[in-house]
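Handoff note, outgoing to incoming analyst
You'll be picking up this chain. Sequence as last confirmed:
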Amino acid sequence: MSRKILMEESENKIWMFLLENEEIVEIHCDQKGDSVRCRHTLGNIYVGKVKNIVSNIGAAFIEIESSIECYYDMSQAENAFFLKKSGKKPLCIGDELVVQISREAMKTKVPTVSSNINFTGKYAILTSGNTRIGISGKLPKTLREELKEKLGPLKNEEYGLIIRTNAKDVEFSAILEEVKKLRDNFYKLKQTAAMRTCFSCLVQAPPSYITDLKNVYTEGLTEIVIQGEGLYRQVREYYEKEYPDELGKLRLYEDPKLPLSSLYNTRSAVEKALGQRVWLKDGAYLVIQYTEALTVIDVNSGKYISRKNPAESYLKINLAAAKETARQLRLRNLSGIVIVDFINLDNKNDEQELLKALRQYLSQDPIQSTVVDVTELQLVEITRKKVRRPLHESIRT
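Most recent structure output, in case you need it:
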């Protein structure tokens, strides 16, 4: 598969488009500037103070700076790195501890912080919250077993390692080199934190549009095309420091007569990704609607006309809808609970074929997506891990 990344700056926003085989499959939009939301970037690490504890939901609220409170899961307190304790309980009001933003603020919900500190590289993640060595399930089984054996000597009681999908085609020495860098950052953090005051930002993560470059699948990535000299310099400086071997993939786009957005029709792609209705081939369509609690996707036969019997037609429409549903979740970065109302299928074998296809399409998503169940009303429940705000919120912020 051929992959390409486009980046451009427009109206104080940074746009990033990931193309697979020349089709836009991901759209990211980030603010450029010094707003509060920009300061509290995903991955930032702070010395926080416990402001409030809500025991009945197993949660606490931790300030990371004055009047900026974040949600915290109290089950993590057992392994937290405390700089000041105010009592003997696992977590007390007034405790100061090291936390990291693990989920952005979304709508009315505050950011989520974690005391399971992660240092994320291109090929590996170092985590203080779990000391095991894990390997991405998307890597071939033989490679997973090989990596687990080679990494065995690195197992310890202070931190764990997760090897990412991007490690598939790199030399083991490159993985080891990155792990060493992540480990050095981890030890440096522990030393620095002990000397810092409450509300200090210990690690300022790169802007989200830089982090996104590290998180996309790199297999088959041929080039990163950037419009705008300032943005190009910023990305180049990051690559010179972190990934000098891949500088050759960066290209500054400089045609003033034909903007990058016109060449790849990105504006049209954004408009479609914000629309409620998504047309399928043969006249069927999806209706995508957002609520506070979940996303609802309705499958309609629309203008679809077929001479086949209805059961075959409905299965065909649903299979096309399953593929497009998986594509839209990734394209729009929809997360949390998703309910899909497919056209009802009376045949159990057809229903199982549909679910199998849906799981297959969702497995291609870099973000964990799961088919949970089918209700008695034949509504399909999907969950997709929440990390960043959906596209429609990012654009309108």
